[in-house]
């Protein structure tokens, strides 16, 4: 990732305050790893169908959009709930949460690092509407807060 960003900076104009990570399944697990290992690089994260491996520890508050399915058999929903709870602890997003639309809950954080979840009733899928939710979510956050 570090080398990829270096190459992108050489070839393109990169706004270093607006670098984000999203992924699905294994890519989503990697998104949580990037949060743990490179929090200073990324402004926000949006994993879809992810768990946090035991070796991954979130220590810096970051805005999160986690999308998961209650019928996911690939990444058990219980594991996804544990990841969401770890993110809420890291972000200090301890409240009850407020509805932000169908299937959507937003947990506020005093550090401007909310945890937003979209929990659907399907399995191990990337719902089409999630792409726009992700873009809209990322547009709200930058490292220059």
Describe the protein's architecture and organization.
This protein has 145 residues and is α/β, with parallel strands linked by helices. 32% of the residues lie in helices and 19% in strands. It is built from 4 helices and 6 strands; from the N terminus they run H-E-H-E-E-H-E-E-E-H. It has a 6-stranded mixed sheet with strand order 1-2-3-6-5-4, sandwiched between helices. The longest helix has 15 residues, at 77-91. The radius of gyration is 15 Å and the shape is globular. The chain starts with a helix and ends in a 6-residue tail after the last helix. The mean pLDDT is 96.
Question: Can you summarize this structure?
Answer:
The chain is α/β, with parallel strands linked by helices and 145 residues long. The protein has helices at 2-11, 26-37, 77-91, 130-139; strands at residues 20-24, 44-48, 64-69, 98-99, 104-107, 115-120. The longest helix is centred in the middle third of the chain and has 15 residues, at 77-91.
């Amino acid at each position: 990732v570090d080398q990829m960003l270096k190459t992108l900076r050489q070839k393109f104009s990169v706004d270093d305050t607006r670098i984000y990570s999203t992924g699905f399944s294994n890519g989503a697990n990697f998104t949580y790893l990037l949060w743990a290992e490179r929090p200073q690089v990324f402004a926000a994260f949006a994993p879809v169908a992810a768990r946090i491996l035991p070796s991954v520890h979130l220590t810096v508050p970051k805005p999160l959009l986690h999308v998961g399915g209650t019928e996911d058999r690939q990444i058990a929903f219980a594991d996804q709930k544990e990841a969401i709870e770890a993110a809420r602890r890291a972000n200090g997003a301890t409240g009850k949460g407020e509805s932000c639309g169908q299937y959507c809950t937003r947990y506020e954080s005093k550090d401007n690092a909310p945890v937003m979840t979209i929990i659907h009733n399907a399995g191990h899928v990337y719902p089409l509407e999630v792409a726009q939710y992700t873009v809209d979510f990322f547009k709200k956050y930058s490292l220059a807060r």
